């Protein structure tokens, strides 16, 4: 049983890393896979805490970029505006996430059918947006005005519903408000850093008394797997969406959501 749990944690970690930064909802994939694998985590803590692996992966890939922005802050208006934009975009999800944490974890995370339906609906919306003849006004994340960033942050709040996808909500909102596909994906990367770190910290604090040694070992396995998989995705995603757009992810969402519904109907 212990070996089976380790294998499940490894699989779920890879799923987390592969799906965290693409608009398919990593939380939905991890929760659905955990459901069908029979993997149990107190308070669904595992699904959130292994995100630290993905967080560290994106911090590693973007370390030089982050360092250059930090060193430019005293002298560069553009750098200061960018940091302000990220903070404003992060704020709505931080407030709503803190207020609704219990409901999200105990109700929404425990409803596999809802997750499947949201996956399908989100896929349809993402596919439709990807096919719209939009004319982007912003092609560089450093040029996003704070007002635009705040609106994107409001879209991110939709991801409180498992299956929506944090990156999917932010990317869809950014595209509708005049960004190109590459910068929309990159802004979702930057916004992921405080958002995911905040969710990790809050969940760790809320469940600090529920964790035991076995949980920690499983989380460590999932963390390492998520880190490795996320490294691969972050290094390749921007070039992929520049050439292929988001339609492949939209179709994937619909396929997985449909398969999940069929699986729930067959095995419960």
From TrEMBL:
InterPro entries (UniProt xref): UppP
One Pfam family this sequence matches: BacA
Reactions catalysed, as given in the entry: di-trans,octa-cis-undecaprenyl diphosphate + H2O = di-trans,octa-cis-undecaprenyl phosphate + phosphate + H(+)
GO biological process, one term: response to antibiotic
Protein topology in the membrane: Multi-pass membrane protein
Positions of transmembrane segments: 43-62, 82-104, 110-129, 187-205, 217-238, 250-267
GO molecular function annotation: undecaprenyl-diphosphatase activity
GO cellular component: plasma membrane
Predominant subcellular localization, coarse grouping: membrane
Subcellular location(s) of the protein: Cell membrane
UniProtKB keywords: Antibiotic resistance, Cell membrane, Cell shape, Cell wall biogenesis/degradation, Hydrolase, Membrane, Peptidoglycan synthesis, Transmembrane, Transmembrane helix
E.C. number: 3.6.1.27
Broadest EC class assigned to this enzyme: hydrolase
Miscellaneous: Bacitracin is thought to be involved in the inhibition of peptidoglycan synthesis by sequestering undecaprenyl diphosphate, thereby reducing the pool of lipid carrier available.
Family per record: Belongs to the UppP family.
Function: Catalyzes the dephosphorylation of undecaprenyl diphosphate (UPP). Confers resistance to bacitracin.
PANTHER family documented for this protein: UNDECAPRENYL-DIPHOSPHATASE
Protein name: Undecaprenyl-diphosphatase
Lineage of origin: Bacteria, Pseudomonadati, Pseudomonadota, Alphaproteobacteria, Hyphomicrobiales
Gene name of this polypeptide: uppP
């Amino acid at each position: 049983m212990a070996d089976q749990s380790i294998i499940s944690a490894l699989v779920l970690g890879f799923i987390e890393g592969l799906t965290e930064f693409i608009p398919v909802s990593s939380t939905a994939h991890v929760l659905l896979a955990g459901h069908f694998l029979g993997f149990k985590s107190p308070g669904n803590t595992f699904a959130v805490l292994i995100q630290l692996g993905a967080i560290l992966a994106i911090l590693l890939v973007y370390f030089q970029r982050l360092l250059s922005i930090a060193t430019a802050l005293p002298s560069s208006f553009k750098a200061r505006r960018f940091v302000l934009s990220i903070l404003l975009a992060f704020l709505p999800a931080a407030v709503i996430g803190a207020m609704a944490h219990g409901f999200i974890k105990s109700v929404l995370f425990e409803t596999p059918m809802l997750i499947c339906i949201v996956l399908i609906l989100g896929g349809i919306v993402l596919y439709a947006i990807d096919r719209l003849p939009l004319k982007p006004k912003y092609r560089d994340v450093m040029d996003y005005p704070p007002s635009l960033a705040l609106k994107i942050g409001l879209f991110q709040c939709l991801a409180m519903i498992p299956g929506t996808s944090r990156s999917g909500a932010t990317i869809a909102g950014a595209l509708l408000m005049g960004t190109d596909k590459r910068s929309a994906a990159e802004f979702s990367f930057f916004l992921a850093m405080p958002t995911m770190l905040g969710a990790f910290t809050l969940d760790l604090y809320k469940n600090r008394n529920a964790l035991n040694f076995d949980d920690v070992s499983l989380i460590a396995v999932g963390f390492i797997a998520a880190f490795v998989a996320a490294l691969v995705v972050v290094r390749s995603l921007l070039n992929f969406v520049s050439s292929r757009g988001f339609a492949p992810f939209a179709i994937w969402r619909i396929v997985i959501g449909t398969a999940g519904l069929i699986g729930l109907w067959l095995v419960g």
